[in-house]
Specification:
CATH superfamily of the largest domain in chain A: MetI-like
Largest sheet of chain B: none
Shape of chain B: flat
Shape of chain A: flat
Number of strands of chain B: 0
Largest sheet of chain A: 2 strands, antiparallel
Oligomer: heterodimer
Number of helices of chain A: 14
Helix content of chain A: over 70%
CATH topology of the largest domain in chain B: MetI-like fold
Number of helices of chain B: 17
CATH class of the largest domain in chain B: Mainly Alpha
Radius of gyration of chain B: 26 Å
Distance between the termini of chain A: 27 Å
Strand content of chain B: under 5%
Structural class of chain A: mainly alpha
Order of helices and strands of chain A: HHHEEHHHHHHHHHHH
CATH architecture of the largest domain in chain B: Orthogonal Bundle
Largest interface: A-B, 124 and 112 residues
Strand order of the largest sheet of chain A: 1-2
Mean pLDDT of chain B: 87
Low-confidence stretches of chain A: 1-18
CATH topology of the largest domain in chain A: MetI-like fold
Strand content of chain A: under 5%
Amino acid sequence: MGLGGCGKSGMNQPATAPGPVAANLWHRLRTTWAEQGNYRRGDGRAAILFLLPDLIGFVIFTLLGVLGTFGISFLKWNLVRPPTFVGLENYRGLVDDPLFWQVLGNTVYYTLGVVPISTALALLIALGLNRKLPGMVIFRTAYFAPFITTLTASALLWQWIFDPTRGLIDSVLYMIGVSDPPGWLNSTAWAMPALIIFGVWRQIGFSMVLFLAGLQGVPRTLLEAASVDGAGAWQRFRHVTLPMLSPTTFFVVIITTIGSFQIFDQAFILTGGRFSPDNATNTLVGYLYNKAFVYLDMGTASATAWVLFLIIFAVTVVQLIGQRRWVHYE
Amino acid sequence: MSSRQQSPGALSVRPDQGRAAVLPRNRPRLRVRRLLVDLLVYVGLTIGMVAVVLPFVYMVASSLETIAQIGALTPQFWPDPPQWTNYQQVWQQLPVGQYFLNSLIVAVVVTGGQIITASMAAYAFARLRFRGRSVLFALYLGTLIIPSQVTLIPNYILIRILHWHNTYAGLIAPFLVSVFSTFLLRQFFLTISPELEDAARIDGASHFQIYLRIIMPLAKPALAALVIFTFLGSWNNFLWPLVVIDSPSLTTVPLSIVAFQGQYATAWNLLMVAATLSVAPVLIVYLLAQRYFVEGIALTGQGGR
């Protein structure tokens, strides 16, 4: 809600004038410093001193960053010549650019691939690990390992694994008699599935750990009561574990979705920065990066950033609304 | 929950008296079934684990092959003899040590800075009553959902204006503060009982003393998780260094992958040396302290970003 406020104030006035939120805040901070209306003496000044380092960075890099991107999205600016105001032209340019729609489609494709597959597999693995058999720590350690490895380095590794002539996957496929292996990163049809496989490989461990934590919260007594009532393993899972786990599932889905929409590093590395073939692996952030730092079109890049934010925001809101149907809170 | 941590085999025979009385004859069959399921779980988890770990094995194996072996049609997992000279060659041709040093400097300063700024602000949000607190906190929360790419361009322009591109300052400055860390610590501080502080306050302790001597020591689990993931997030950060750094002497480990790609093109054995060198330190630290990584995620719901 704080966000809605500051967005609005930026829209009605030039970016330099403090909007109502900022003015209000400034007034409150001033009276705080003067210790007017504080509960305990000494709290106001202490608060400002404690907040100051964080607040300086927050204002400069986050608040000015967000407002700045919003402002720049209405400019034509290549950082060399002075910027000119072009109104909504950058946004119109996005709508008219087939490449924008392609990268948007690619990003959605990636998200729709990674989120369900990684979530389902992570849940399956977590259920197995939750049986607490001996040696489970080894499995947990192994499954989680890809998540912590340097993203660009593991992307380089997978570029080699996906190599169409000598890479691991296609070599094995060739050996077992597939005469025409997909060629992955060289193929417009298979490049995105390759990114999804890599994304799932990396994501599983993270979601698995969250599911394991969630499974600790499923009461044993409830499961035992269900089996006394004659519920089989599947029924116990379907009617006890799954509903009790739904807040965790919801969190995993939200976090993974937000992360997937921001995919960039792996697409960049896997294709040597070319998002080849034919932009088949280009994403919203890749488009933003190219606009800003290859074509020096700061306006369009900023507009793209805002569109990215609005999409993530909208998807999150839709998920928050949709959760009422399936997320069960005690 | 943890009162029932015996082996699941024992669990199935002694759930409660009522059930044991109802199903006496089924006990052996249940036990066999349970064993079968356990076996199936082991097999499934093992297959999955092989799929997850195999890429790493392949990476190390490839890094020890000759260029001719790399070109062979059948993938090899046991290079004979291992070409340790590959590592020597890469180490000599590119400033690998410098990459590590750069990443280390940035990650240490970013982590330290973020812990200080975030914990102090979190103390104010959690413990101090001041006008504007709820408005300011709402503003913080509102920016939490904003993806980092949204602030990329203005931050880049600011760094250019300050002439901080191609400097450590440029790499570090935007990350000295994190809304997420502030939020996380504030939430954790709220769970700490205020009784100890009230006692300290009666004894005349200042806010800074309470923050440093009482709150911070009690927040160790949250701080440990935050240290791990802030460090990891900084160590793995790619987009920001890609944008503000084009000097080899300031290249970080993730960014160095681009340099390796440029240098070695399709010499996959040498590229896998680069990948192994980049992955190994993080992997070793993780293997030594994996419990803290896993607990940290469970605590924060967040990995390195």
